[in-house]
Amino acid sequence: MQRRDLLRFSLGASAFLATTSLVGCTAQSAAPGYKVLRDDDLPLLSALIPVVLAGTQAVEALVLHSLDHKLAALSPEMLKLTRQLFDVLSLPLTRGPLTGVWGAWQQASSEQINAFLQRWQDSSLNLLRMGHASLLQLLQMAWYERPEAWAACGYPGPPKI
Fold it and tell me: Which of 35, 59, 80, 146 could cross-link to 72 by cystine, CB 3.0-4.6 Å?
């Protein structure tokens, strides 16, 4: 491991550990109208949805409610890990250094969000690559499970029995 890689890893690990120790400080109750998603999660997800699902007819509210339904079905441990990922991305202390998005998610441009996603996808840190894959899979599953998404991708729906 080169010195630069070690420094980068140390910064990322320090930020992650600092954030996970602060997780207890973030609101754990669900936002109104949701079972699991919290008020702090919504700006992040609202910024990611149009970028991750670009080229689809995804409706933000439908994706958020599908995602909430999926998260409510997770095991407590998986939900905890997912919330930690959302916390790392939402807290200003870690958001800037880890994503390159220094302001609020609501002000982030599509280019900034794409750069963040590319940065995590190509990261030498396995933890960031796993975070990238998790974000994409969660949002894509939340949209493509919906009947509104099926026609655009040529899926006729499940067989009728």
Answer: 35
Quick check: 121 and 74 in contact, CB under 8 A? no
Q: Is 73 helix (H, G, I), strand (E, B) or coil?
A: coil
d(CA 131, CA 94): 14
Could you tell me the residue range of the domain that residue 94 belongs to? Answer: 32-149
SS3 of residue 66 by DSSP? helix
- Cα first-last separation, the chain: 56
pLDDT digits (tens, 9 = 90+) for 111-143: 999 999 999 999 999 999 999 999 999 999 999
Counting the structural domains of the chain, the total is: 1
Q: For residue 89, what are the CA distances in angstroms to 6, 50, 111?
A: 22, 17, 17
Within 10 angstroms of residue 4's Cβ, the number of other Cβ atoms is 9
